[in-house]
Amino acid sequence: xxxxxxxxxxxLQVLREKVAALGLLLDAALGSAVRAFLERDRNLASETILxxxxxxxxxxxLDRLCHAFVVRHLPSAGHLRTISAVLRLSVALERVxxxxxxxxxxxxxxxxxxxxxxxxxxxxxxxxxxxxxxxxLKAFHEQSPDLxxxxxxxxxxxxxxxxxxxxxxxxxxxSRDIPVRDTFAFLxxxxxxxxxxxQAKNICEETIFAVTGEVKRARAFRxxxxxxxxxxxxxxxxxxxxxAFPQGASYASAGWDPAxxxxxxxxxxxxxxxxxxxx
Length: 279
Prior knowledge:
Elements: H1 3-39, H2 42-50, H3 52-73, H4 77-109, H5 116-142, H6 145-175, H7 180-212, E1 222-227, H8 233-244, E2 250-255, H9 264-272
């Protein structure tokens, strides 16, 4: 191995270790944030909020190291993909830190004890989110696309859990006299925990890209505009969307009780503005 190859490998290892260290910071912050909320520990919540500064510094250091790597090595192929992945990955990790801060702020502002059922659900979701995040970072550190794909499969199960927890929360809110402010706090926390799992999935996708060059498939959207008769507003909305975002999705319109044809005034309006005719 040449001196250049040794230096390049060493610099890549430094990047992976920095990502791993940042992951440890975030895992600890998430644990503290959730504990602060469940235990109504405002001091711990405040410490977690202040602890976001080292996270921000670490993400900026990652960016600096990535740019320095590009200047020093002029990477191509796999090495360039790795740098690109780390730059996007650092954004995902910074957002995870922001989610921990959001949870901590809810802990500071909450006014009533968390119902036992809701507390149990929050603990379960938090542990799942942290587990998926740890696995995604392990996949990146080991440069293992197989582990990344397995972790993404774990993440998809979180959607089912989230829906169950959401139903539990609504049931608790209806059966107990929970302040509206605290109910919204529970929803915010559940949403942040779900987003942590989503960011873990993004990290897995970046790992797969860095190692294999495989990019995630573009999302295909199908948008349906509906009104009563499908003779005016829905047709107009479809035409405007198709003109404004022709490559963004496939568009259609429908009506609950569809009319035989479009309103002539609407057709004239669409024609005058270059929106075309209904499909």
